[in-house]
Amino acid sequence: MTVETFVGAIFALLTLETMFWLLAGVLVGIVVGGLPGLGPPLGMAIILPLTIPLNAADAIILLVGVYSGSMYGGSIAAILINTPGVSSSAATMFDGYPMSKQGRAATALSISATASAFAGLFTIAALILFSPVLIELVLRVGTPERFLVALLGLSMITVITRGSFAKGLLAGFAGLLVTTVGSAQPIAVTRRYADSLLLFDGIDFVAVLIGLFAIAEMMKLAGQKGGIAESDVVIDRAGIKEGIVETVKRPVTVFKSGMIGMIVGAIPGAGATVSNFVAYSEAVRASPDPETFGSGNPVGVVASEASNNGTVAGSLVPAISFGIPGSSSTAVLIGGLLMHGLQPGPSMFQVDGELGLTYTMLLALLVGNVVILIFGLSAVTRLGYLTKIDTDYIIPMVIVLSFLGTYALRINPMDIITIILFGIIGFYMVRYNYSVIAFVLGVVLGDIAEGNLYTALQISGGTYDIFYNPFAYDRPLSFLLTVTIILLLFGPLVKGQINRLRGK
Amino acid sequence: MEHVLLVLFLVVGTYMYLGASEFPAAAARFPRLMAGGTVLLSFLILARNYLDVVAPLLTAALGVYAAYTGGTEFLADGGGLAQVFLGIGLLALAVGFRGQLVDGATSFVAEPMQVLGKEDILDQDLEEGVAENRAKATGESPEPEQAADADTEEQADSGAMYVYDIDDAKGPIMTGILCLAYMLVTFAIGMLYATPLFVIAWTLWVKMDFAKAAALTGLGMLCSYLFYDLIQSDIAEGWLTGWEPTPPDVLYNMYINPIVQPILRIVDQYIIFPILDLIGTVLPLGVVPL
Q: Which CA distances in Å does A106 have to A28, A69, A74, A244?
């Protein structure tokens, strides 16, 4: 049955319309990733409301296309103007920009396209190959465990987040609190605060996402100088072949960095930025000439770019399995799933559920990487234009699209208020080091967490020991998850104490 | 501004905690838990400079509350014993281990900590070596380079978090004000015409060239018209006023079309139809001039 579903997914992908949306998504993603200051979550958040007229499969394919494309697009600005289009390309700058200064910009860009595409291809292929095991695992997880997995995701983000632990937790709690306004679906009750009709339908998470990622980012961009590049870099077509050869002759680096990206990407909150540095660091460690890194060593670009596209596959695992976003981009992707009536979790892996769509999405990413390769290599000499677009043009258009997209969804004035309010809150949260992704995770997980908590408590007759007593309900996994959460929550405190003792 | 943000969380959390008491018990549990957490954490961060006093007091208060509610429950139906023990434990912690409690609270609230930070990934020597090599390879002095890196590093330290510098504080403030104005105009006249007005205001703020400003405004108008025409026509109506200004397609039919029509007829009669005639004569495609 699974094989039939897989074959069905191939046919579903190979329709003209679906391929068009995939192509459009990847190209939009490359542009969005290439524009300094924008990035995958912002691009996906703006696209999100525009997917309403599309069917669920095309909408999700468009979103994952943007995600994948922008991962590659981020390297363009990193290589050409020493500013990462997205933070996940930060390590690309270390060697990509020196290569540009040495007149090897085309080589660096084609390394980026090739390494991104190859790593993206094999990590997605690996995910498809291992999907039967993943399906088995996800289907075994019950309601109490799903609630605990949601908590685990939140705990992971708060400990991975840089800065005060309390700030990370506060952001998560505040995000969860947002979801308690309006309809409480599992209980079939509407929670109305202040008898406000505007809040009757709750706070739309799409508006929250757009506020946090689009409006807050545009406010930030409006306060920063140097949005455009006076790039004097010459991009010579002759370097393209050299770039391909440089990548192809380093299959171990591509494979290792891609796998690092995939594994780190599956950790909620870690994302492509962390994997980027881990892969780069590993490439330096394994190199026979580590002293050449930072001066234009192609291996640095290969490692960095292979890892960030590998992250896409990894981050999809917790996102579609449990609804836990590995990164801001997957948070928007989950938003897309929910907006189109799809619930992340076991149904995404059931043959009579949405397994077909899951396979179509993975196959779309596979094809998307081929598009990245073809487009990336053929447009190398033109990519510099992206870095010259003035932010004065970008900001009003992003705001306009955010407002139009949000308002057109429900014609609810509250949504406009929401994007402005959360835009301002998001701006200051980032400014003062409060984890936006923990907040988003709370917003995305709220309904899932509450629904599973409610059902679990119904099973246990209202007592919480279903989550920690391994004998009472024969649920050892619940117990293990609870222990892991406690360890994660107290781990940083213990680490701090150990560091303090070492200091003494 | 951080205090404003925290006070906002504190006030909203408190309001929602109290407001949740009006919901049925099952519907109130989750919001109360979340609102309670929000209030507690906001308060702790707000009081981070006074944790040596606040932390023991708060722990003791929580202990008393847990012991009291647990005790009440125990007397009523025999349950709540765990809560009583928890309360007593918290009280003992607040009284007997005050120093450790304050240290723990300070570490929890004020100290930056990260399990998978960049310091866990890139070692200092490697980082410095790469920075030196970059400075040599790009011919740029290491100082500004390092400054740029520091900015990026801050952004890149964690996938979950980055901070940034603002060069011009007026930019975000003005963007926020223009967004608010955009919202108010939208509520008055609908988004169809509020959109180009917002773009005009933006181009005036950034002092854009007239030609570029006109092009950008036209693009904004095109976007809003496409949304109006293809996705949702209700965006043209002002929510507060109920007023829907005449949309561009109606304006076109009322004013522009009557002027353009005679010209189009002449173009049809003297250019298009003769060409179609010619094609029809040369190639029998079945094209019949109207």
A: 21, 18, 15, 10
Mean per-residue pLDDT over chain A, rounded: 82
User: CA nearest A329: which of A74, A142, A81?
Assistant: A74
Residue A495 with chain B: CB contacts under 8 Å: 113, 115
In this complex, how many residue pairs, one in chain A and one in chain B, have their CB atoms less than 8 Å apart? 325
Residue A153 has pLDDT above 60, yes or no: yes
Condensed to tens digits (0 to 9), the pLDDT of residues B19-55 reads 888 888 878 888 888 999 999 999 989 988 888 888 8
Contact between B200 and B215 under an 8 Å Cβ cutoff? The reply is no
Q: DSSP readout, A257-295? A: HHHHHHHHHTSTTTHHHHHHHHHHHHHHHH-S-GGGTTS
Q: What is the pLDDT of residues A239-292, one digit of tens each?
A: 788 888 989 988 999 999 999 888 888 876 666 777 788 888 888 888 888 888
User: Can you give the pTM of this predicted structure?
Assistant: 0.78
Q: Please provide the size of chain B in residues.
A: 290
On average, the pLDDT of chain B sits at 80
Residue B74, classed as helix, strand or coil, is helix
Which pair of structure tokens corresponds to residue A250? Answer: 């380093």
Q: Token pair for residue B89?
A: 């434990």
User: Across the strands, what pairs with A434?
Assistant: none
Contact A172, A345 (CB under 8 A): no
Q: How far apart are CA A466 and CA A473, in angstroms?
A: 6
ipTM of the complex: 0.79
Report the alpha-carbon distance of residue B85 to residue B70 in Å, rounded: 8
Q: Taking CB atoms and an 8 Å limit, are B139 and A101 in contact across chains?
A: yes
pLDDT tens by residue, A361-383: 889 888 988 888 888 888 877 77
Q: Does B31 touch chain A (CB under 8 A)?
A: yes
Nearest-by-Cβ selection for A397 from B19, B123, B219: B219
Question: A437-453 b/e with 16+ CB inside 10 Å = b?
Answer: bbbbbbbbbbbbbbbbb
- Cα of first residue to Cα of last residue in chain B, in angstroms, is 70
How far apart CA A90 and CA A82 sit, in angstroms, is: 9
Would you kindly state where each structural domain of chain B is located, as residue ranges? 2-115, 116-165, 170-236, 252-290
Is A396 near chain B, with CB under 8 Å? yes
